[in-house]
Amino acid sequence: MFSYNKFLEYPIKIKKTDPRLANVIITQYGGPNGELGASLRYLSQRYMMPDDITKGLLTDIGTEELGHLEMIGTLVTQLSGGVPPEEWLKMGSAEYYADNGVSVFPQNAQGTPFSAASIAVTGDPLTNLYENMAAEQKARAVYDNILRLSDDVDVNNVIKFLREREIVHFQRFGEAKRKLTSRKKAHSLRCFAAPIKYKSYDIEL
Predict the structure, then answer these.
(1) H/E/C letters for each residue in 103-170?
(2) Which of 92-98's residues contact partners 24+ apart within 8 Å by CB, and which partners?
(3) Which of 81, 91, 102, 119 could disulfide-link to 41, CB 3.0 to 4.6 Å?
(4) Rounded distance between C-alpha atoms, residue 114 and residue 34, angstroms
């Protein structure tokens, strides 16, 4: 059961509207490396994890990513809310406005709508954890790119906070991966310690 707290993980108060920047940041809402994909990835993968601790980790991080999705949506809304259509034209973001007005829509910065095909959920826990570590690094790289494109201090403070959380998530997934790998190695050693009987076969070459 999820509990919804009516406050953002980091306060957002944008003073200057900028629909073009909103059009860039939207990629972390519904792009392939964005927060929507991350939350769905982790909340879906948790069912196949081998122990309650790892399941709990994926549940916690997946839930936090939903909070980050709300933060990105808030950023986009504050950057674009109340901006007249002519400003969207002037800023070069008329395409987004034509499709969505000033609403928040899950897509990447190039206008491609969100697709669950961008997330990976396999039946192998170790594969999933490697996937998650890569996903966090890709999200961190996108936030780095956004910081290079933005000169708005209020926006950048929020992006820096989200970037730091990607690094923390990467570390937590790394710890879970190491524990799972150690467990698998211990299991393999126990298997190899048992005597193995081989059958001999005559092979004609």
Answers:
(1) CCCCECCCCCECCHHHCCCCCCHHHHHHHHHHHHHHHHHHHHHHHHHCCCHHHHHHHHHHHHHHHHHH
(2) 92/20, 93/19, 93/20, 93/22, 93/23, 96/19, 96/22, 96/23, 96/26, 97/19
(3) 119
(4) 9
pLDDT at 192 over 90: no
- State residue 203's pLDDT score: 36
pTM: 0.86
In this structure, the number of other CB atoms found within 10 A of the CB of residue 72 comes to: 25
Phi, psi of 2 (to 5 degrees): -95, 145
Structure tokens at 130: 């490697």
Mean per-residue pLDDT, 129-134: 96
Q: 1: burial class by Cβ within 10 Å (0-12, 13-18, 19+)?
A: exposed
Interatomic CA distance for residues 46 and 94, integer angstroms = 40
Mean pLDDT of 72-83: 93
CA angle 134, 166, 131 (to 5 degrees): 20
